[in-house]
Amino acid sequence: MNVVKRIRAVRGLQAAHRPVLFDIALAVAATIVEVGLLFNDGTQAAPLPIAVTVLTGAVLLARRRFGVTVTAVTVASAAAVTAAGYSPGGAPAVVALWSLAETRDRRVSLAVLAPVAVFLEADNVCSPPVSIGAWMLGAYMQARRRYVQAVEERAATLERERDQLDQIAAQRERESIARELHDIVAHSVTVMLIGVRGARDVLDTEPHVAARTLERVETSAEQSLAELRRILVLLRGRHAAETRPQPSLADLDHLLTGYRAAGLPVRLEIAGEPLDLPSGVELSAYRIIEEALTNALKHAGATLATVRLSYGGADLEVRVHDDGTGIGEPGPGGHGLVGMRERVAVLAGELETGQVPGGGFRVVARLPIGERA
To answer: CA 26, CA 34: separation in Å to the nearest integer?
Structure first.
């Protein structure tokens, strides 16, 4: 971890040094160009104009912080060299105009451009097209930089909003799952209470019947404890329990009939011998199938779907495969995959979703039948 932090620190220092290195290189280049323009007509080199040009080039290092002042200094330097009988090329002044347009407000740079262009033309330093061209280049770079910043900020905002929507959807799904598990536990407790009362009534006359009843109560109690542990992890707030019974795999035929009536042919395949499953596993399997078929019907444009339940081993495998185009990224309110992940996570299972190489979209959930530590 320390090595990673050091690498990031070094990269940060490198990024911070890039503008400084660029400013130094730009100042040196402008100085060299200006000295070359001073004496390209055969004029004999002299210390005074060279010294003034070098000092003016050094002033360019402050162009980012003091743009207007640096521009004024470069113009004054050109005027002084002209008064001394030399013919400057105006390279520092052009660089200062470009930098001013690139770093300052548009109105400020325009207000400076007009008198500077007129003065440089009147002093025979450089023509207005050169000054205006330098300003336009700087203005374009400023607009481009602001556009890129706006795009990056918008992308970051959208990313934050999407994360928040996913968190809200996940929270709502957890609350929904907790309410459903609450109903399952309430039902199990009711069954246990009836069983205990029945066992008590026949305990003296038919102890073997009472023993079998208490065994069923014990099994139901173990399942209820597992569901309660999941509720403690998920529940965030108080919600009224629903009075209607929660669906299970016994209701699967009725569910598939509804989708067939809505225009989506659905095949049901069952591999292995169906087992008695914990209520939470059955409910999660039912909801995953329901959500996968809803996505196939509403978002994927599927014309055929296959639901396969595979019993065997320690897991129940739920596989839903359709021939549609896939659901892609969920839009506003479309958080079906989030809900599936939450349901599978509650049972410590596994979920796989994605496009199928041969075409279509599949959802594969492996739900542990027994409780995992």
So the answer is: 12
Q: Taking Cα atoms as reference points, which of 265, 264, 321 lies closest to residue 292?
A: 321
CB of 125 closer than 8 Å to CB of 162: no
Question: 81 in helix, strand or coil?
Answer: helix
Q: What is the Cα–Cα distance from 226 to 359, expressed in whole angstroms?
A: 39
Burial of 136 (0-12, 13-18, 19+ CB in 10 A): middle
Pairing of strands 315-322, 361-368: antiparallel
CB 305 within 8 A of CB 265: yes
> At which residue do the structure tokens 């279509």 appear?
360
Per-residue 3-state assignment (H helix, E strand, C coil) for 312-348: ECCEEEEEEEECCCCCCCCCCCCCHHHHHHHHHHHCC
| Identity of the residue numbered 212 | R
Each of the 373 residues of the chain gets a pLDDT tens digit; together they read 444 445 445 445 444 446 788 888 888 888 888 877 777 766 676 788 788 888 888 888 888 888 888 888 888 888 888 887 777 878 888 888 888 888 888 888 888 888 888 888 887 778 888 888 888 998 898 899 889 888 888 888 888 888 778 777 777 777 776 677 667 666 667 667 677 777 777 777 787 777 777 777 777 776 766 666 666 655 544 444 444 567 888 889 989 988 888 888 999 999 988 888 887 788 889 989 988 998 888 777 788 999 999 998 788 999 999 987 765 444 433 456 777 888 888 888 899 998 888 778 899 999 988 644 3
For 116-164, the DSSP string reads: HHHHHHHTTS--HHHHHHHHHHHHHHHHHHHHHHHHHHHHHHHHHHHHH
Let me know how long the chain is: 373
- DSSP letter assigned to residue 274: -
192, 221 contact by CB (below 8 A)? yes
For residue 63, the surrounding DSSP H or E stretch is none
- Position of tokens 């300003």? 135
Please tell me the distance from the alpha carbon of residue 239 to that of residue 262, in angstroms, as a whole number.
32
